[in-house]
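New to this. Look over this protein:
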Amino acid sequence: MSEIRRISKKDFTNKKLNVPGFVLVECYSNASGPLQIMEPILKKLRTKFQEHMMHCRINIAHDSFVVDNYFVQHVPSYLFFYHGDFIDRIDGLLPFSEFAIVIEKHMAAKFTKCSNSQYVTVFSGQVIEPI
């Protein structure tokens, strides 16, 4: 997660987010004040999780596809993908410690794909919740 990749709708449709492991997609707008607040936090997260997660940014003012398909209503919003499939989201501002806990929770979980192509979270061999 050491660098930020700028992405667009075609990256979703061309399955470029379908990579092994986790992808964090940051939904932003150029007019967003919280973007500046979150930048130092995201930099620390990129350093901490650089080997485990790819960080991407998409400008929702230019790509309404994300707004429509993932119901992004707040800026910033953060979408989590695992092997190309959407698994979770964070809307708004979070301190570093809480954001890191969310990422660590997903990394500690094992995801199993069900017959309906949805992932479920599995802890200690028990299915906890559908995603």
